[in-house]
Write a structure and sequence with these properties.
The complex is a heterodimer.
Chain A: E1 2-6, H1 16-24, H2 31-36, E2 47-51, E3 54-58, H3 67-71, E4 77-79, E5 85-87, H4 97-101, E6 108-110, E7 115-117, H5 129-133, E8 139-143
Antiparallel strand pairs in A: 1-8, 2-3, 4-5, 6-7
Chain B: E1 2-6, H1 10-22, E2 27-32, H2 44-49, H3 64-67, E3 70-74, E4 78-82, E5 87-90, E6 95-97, E7 100-103, E8 107-109, E9 122-123, H4 128-137, E10 143-147, H5 151-162, E11 166-170, H6 183-196, E12 199-201, E13 206-211, E14 217-222, E15 227-229, E16 232-235, E17 239-241, H7 244-248, E18 257-258, E19 270-272, E20 277-280, E21 287-289, H8 293-307, E22 320-325, E23 328-334, E24 344-350, E25 353-360, E26 363-370, H9 376-384, H10 408-415
Parallel strand pairs in B: 1-2, 1-7, 2-3, 7-19, 9-16, 10-11, 10-16, 11-12, 18-20
Antiparallel strand pairs in B: 4-5, 5-6, 8-17, 13-14, 14-15, 20-21, 22-23, 23-26, 24-25, 25-26
Helix pairs in contact in B: 1-8
The chains are: A alpha+beta, B alpha/beta.
The structure holds flavin-adenine dinucleotide and iron/sulfur cluster (2 copies).
């Protein structure tokens, strides 16, 4: 399956991937409204790690045998036919078991909703927003 | 040829999903004494609290059995395994033949002998029906005594509190969740419970439950001599594996059914998984009952693959817990609460958070996160893969510990970054 991969040597740590991820996962899908007006605030599913001069973006790896899916106590997380690991936010109860088991630190806690937020590969788009909007081409979406 | 699974919970689902990855044809029959389609057992507390409705408790979609070609016999109890005939016997004498059998019967509440156990209002809290019974009682309840401050007892206490019932928890140890939480984390959780208004009595236990003339519980007498009024008692001291019928049929069992790294019991074609099993322990070696949801799924999966003829080895269970009580999240992994000369402990205590890393030589073997639990799984991953952390030691306690702290080669391997 296609996954998002980071090129750390060209990432400048601008965090625009986080901004566009939040926008894509907002109600309005408008960059200003998403960041200034919406409550609960949308949460980024991609996280930029940084320790100067190195930086790179990390998101869910959509693992082949995902620990999160096997451990989720409600069945909110599933691996779909395309291989994407998706979640049903209505079923999530915020127990953080997926946070406990994911070796990549991918599920983020959405404290306002008391549920997790994680990369869903942007089902409404051809290419995930983080990849499309990275000004430096530091994220690639490909089959490996 | 037919596979029979006894028990219809998460270990059974792990097995069914694994079997169907390999074999779409073979008959699978699931037999369980609870009358429900598979539900998320941990959610009975959210149900009692009124936060999750019954129709949202299904662990899998309603068409799960149909889609996977599984025959269910629900509300039926197995009393015996007829090894010679390769069949299991139901409580009405009926027999179901198996070519391979998986025992995934979980556990039952441990109830120590004490006076008054037979009184009305004395409850346990591990099944949907327990939650329904308590739910129906709530309008009449003023004060409930919960015996045991483990995960299940505290979840029951929190739920009842949300429904406006006064709750007192009585615990024999000197703190809450003493088996997994160290003193520091135990204090954080206890403070959150007490601030919410739950009374916690430690280093004491219920010696006797007292009833009224109608046979209803209306008080308890503690070992210390103290007496408390109440209108219900929830016994939540622990869970013991449902291994009795299997043991009587010749399956080797200790506390739980002993399984090897393929989830095989001592008897041919009989497997066990989940809370009923005593399986390999990843960090300590030997075998151990590890009654947690993720372990039950993974053991079920391993059993399923091996039943279907795909050789899959179980790497060993890793103890772990994630719980949030009154808004305070706490995560523990591995040797989170063990003191020993060969272990080195790193801790960081802040206003509303606590982080602890336990090292054995240059690998991490345990961790506790309270308050801030972000990306805790990165540390779980270090434990599971026994990564040498010599070069990231001083960053392990950082709130933003992550891949940035990994040696570059390891990071690239894990993330596929270039
Ligand atoms: C209130 C509560 C909260 C919990 N919270 C968490 C949590 O947050 N995280 C976590 O990791 N774990 C949690 N657990 C533990 C978790 O639910 C168990 O580890 C898990 O359910 C074990 O699954 P299992 O498939 O082994 O068996 P079980 O879920 O115990 O199911 C076994 C089934 O087999 C049936 N059965 C038993 N004997 C027979 C027989 N002879 N014939 C027919 N059927 C039989 C039982 O009735 C039951 O339906 C919680 C448990 C409870 C009760
Ligand atoms: S959340 Fe974590 S464990 Fe689950 S698929 Fe993504 S990277 Fe894998
Ligand atoms: S936090 Fe939500 S998605 Fe994660 S394990 Fe718990 S219920 Fe499942």
């Amino acid at each position: 399956m296609k996954r998002v991969y980071a090129k750390e040597e060209v990432c400048i740590g601008c965090r625009l991937c986080e901004v566009y991820c939040r926008t894509e996962h907002s109600k309005s899908k408008n960059i200003i409204k998403a960041h200034k007006k919406e409550t609960p605030r949308p949460v980024a599913r991609v996280l930029v790690e940084e320790l100067r001069p190195v930086s790179f973006a990390v998101q869910c790896r959509h693992c082949d045998e995902p620990e999160c899916v096997e451990s989720c106590i409600t069945g909110a997380l599933t691996k779909d036919e395309s291989g994407a690991v998706v979640y049903n936010v209505d079923k999530c109860v915020g127990c953080w078991t997926c946070v406990l088991v994911c070796p990549h630190g991918a599920p983020q806690r959405d404290l306002e909703r008391r549920k997790i937020a994680k990369c869903d590969l942007c089902p409404d788009r051809e290419t995930p927003a983080c990849v499309d909007f990275c000004p430096n081409g530091a994220l690639i979406y490909e089959e490996r | 040829m037919s596979y029979v699974i006894i028990g219809n919970s998460v270990a059974a689902v792990g097995a069914i999903e694994a079997i169907r990855k390999v074999d779409k044809e073979i008959n699978i029959t699931v037999i369980s004494d609870e009358p429900y389609a598979v539900y998320s057992r941990p959610l009975i507390s959210e149900y009692l609290a009124g936060q999750v409705k019954e129709d949202m408790m299904g662990y899998r979609a309603p068409d799960f059995y149909e889609r996977n070609g599984v025959t269910t016999m629900l509300g039926r109890k197995i009393t015996e395994i007829e090894r010679a005939r390769k069949s299991v016997k139901l409580d009405n004498g009926e027999e179901v033949a198996y070519s391979k059998l998986l025992i995934a019967t979980g556990g039952s509440p441990f109830i120590p002998p004490m006076k008054g156990l037979g009184l009305g209002g004395v409850m346990t809290f591990i099944k949907m029906d327990d939650a329904k019974k308590l739910d129906a009682m709530v309008p009449e309840l003023k004060h409930v005594i919960v015996i045991g401050a483990g995960l299940i007892g505290l979840k029951a206490a929190e739920s009842l509190h949300h429904r406006g019932v006064k709750v007192t928890v009585v615990e024999l140890a000197n703190r809450v969740m003493a088996t997994v939480l160290d003193v520091e984390a135990g204090n954080i959780v206890q403070k959150a419970l007490e601030q919410a208004g739950i009374t916690i009595i430690t280093e004491d236990t219920v010696a006797e439950i007292i009833g009224d003339s109608a046979g209803m519980a209306n008080g308890v007498k503690l070992k210390s001599g103290k007496a408390l009024d109440c209108d219900a008692v929830v016994v939540a001291i622990g869970v013991i594996p449902n291994a009795g019928f299997a043991k009587e049929s010749g399956v080797e069992a200790n506390r739980g059914i002993i399984v090897d790294d393929h989830m095989r019991t001592n008897l041919t074609d009989i497997y066990a998984a989940g809370d009923v099993a005593e399986g390999p322990d990843y960090l300590n070696g030997g075998v151990r009952v590890m009654p947690i949801w993720p372990n039950a799924y993974i053991q079920g999966k391993i059993a399923g693959f091996n039943m279907a003829g795909v050789d899959r080895e179980f790497g060993g269970g890793l103890a772990m817990n994630s719980i949030e009580l009154f808004g305070v999240p706490v995560i523990t992994v591995g040797l989170s609460n063990v003191e020993s000369d060969d272990l080195e402990v790193l801790t960081k205590v802040e206003e509303n958070s606590y982080r602890k890393i336990v090292l054995r030589g240059s690998t991490v073997v345990g961790a506790v996160f309270a308050g801030k639990v972000e990306r805790a799984g990165m540390v779980t991953g270090l434990i599971r893969d026994q990564i040498d952390v010599s070069d990231m030691r001083d960053r392990l306690l950082a709130d933003d510990f992550g891949y940035i702290d990994f040696p570059i080669e390891l990071r690239k391997e894990r993330l596929g970054v270039s």
